[in-house]
């Protein structure tokens, strides 16, 4: 079946990696089918939402059978472009940046950090997790058209300037781990992850909205 990706709502698209990872594990453990309630328990999304999400892929669960795992994985791979390796760069090889370089993203999806940048001369020229670290000044010569996504783990005050440089070189998506709010053109997508805000918000919800 042909998949029209423009018809998939953003909220559904955001849940895809979650479904994908769980289904891959199921397949690896030899399971060929899964019910929406089983999925719901595992990924913590209610089963009505799962059924609605899956209907966008033409995957209709059968009563008493559930969903075919291989069928779903085939569609998810296509949708998530799992077959095409996405090359990512990282700027700021501090504690957080170093952890990302050591983390093997390719294990669970087809993304790879191919190079990193920093201003600290003791870090420049090193490799961490087989990723080479270049000086920030080298961004224009190193970042080619094949780089669409960047991870920012620099101090907040440096973030906007670096984002501007990367966008001028064609970067279209930034995963921003700094507390800085970035101003970017409309065609650039920023996903902002402020770990301390996330943690604070989790604690707030635990205290004020106990499950
Ligand atoms: P983290 O916040 O990741 O725990 P940290 O506390 O080790 O890091 P930070 O001061 O946040 O250190 O800096 C993160 C990294 O960003 C450091 O390696 C630092 O050298 C680098 N850095 C600082 N300024 C810039 C800049 N303008 N461009 C690129 N990298 C920078």
From TrEMBL:
In the record, which residues are listed under signal peptide?
Answer: none
Q: Where is the CoA-binding domain?
A: 81-181
Binding residues for NAD(+): 92-97
Q: Which InterPro entries match?
A: CoA-bd (IPR003781), NAD(P)-bd_dom_sf (IPR036291), Rex_bacilli-type (IPR058203), Rex_DNA-bd_C_dom (IPR009718), Tscrpt_rep_Rex (IPR022876), WH-like_DNA-bd_sf (IPR036388), WH_DNA-bd_sf (IPR036390)
Q: Where in the cell is it found?
A: Cytoplasm
Q: Which UniProt keywords apply?
A: Cytoplasm, DNA-binding, NAD, Repressor, Transcription, Transcription regulation
Q: Which family does it belong to?
A: Belongs to the transcriptional regulatory Rex family.
Task: State the protein's name.
Answer: Redox-sensing transcriptional repressor Rex
Q: Which organism is it from?
A: Evansella caseinilytica
Mind giving the lineage of the organism this protein is from? Bacteria, Bacillati, Bacillota, Bacilli, Bacillales
């Amino acid at each position: 079946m042909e998949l029209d990706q423009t018809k998939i709502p953003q909220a559904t698209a955001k849940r895809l990696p979650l479904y994908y990872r769980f289904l891959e594990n199921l397949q690896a453990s030899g399971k060929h089918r899964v019910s929406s309630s089983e999925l719901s328990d595992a990924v913590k999304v209610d089963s009505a939402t799962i059924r609605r999400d899956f209907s966008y892929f033409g995957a209709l669960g059968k009563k008493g059978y559930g969903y075919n795992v291989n069928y779903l994985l085939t569609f998810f791979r296509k949708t998530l472009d799992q077959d095409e390796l996405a090359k990512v760069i990282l700027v700021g090889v501090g504690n957080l940046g170093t952890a990302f370089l050591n983390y093997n993203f390719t294990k669970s999806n087809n993304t790879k950090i191919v190079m990193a940048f920093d201003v600290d001369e003791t870090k420049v020229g090193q490799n961490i997790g087989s990723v080479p670290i270049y000086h920030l000044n080298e961004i224009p010569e190193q970042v080619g058209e094949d780089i669409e996504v960047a991870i920012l783990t620099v101090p907040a005050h440096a973030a906007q300037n670096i984002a501007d440089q990367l966008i001028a070189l064609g970067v279209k998506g930034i995963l921003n781990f700094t507390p800085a709010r970035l101003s970017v053109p409309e065609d650039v997508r920023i996903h902002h992850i402020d770990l301390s805000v996330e943690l604070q918000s989790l604690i707030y919800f635990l205290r004020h909205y106990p499950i």
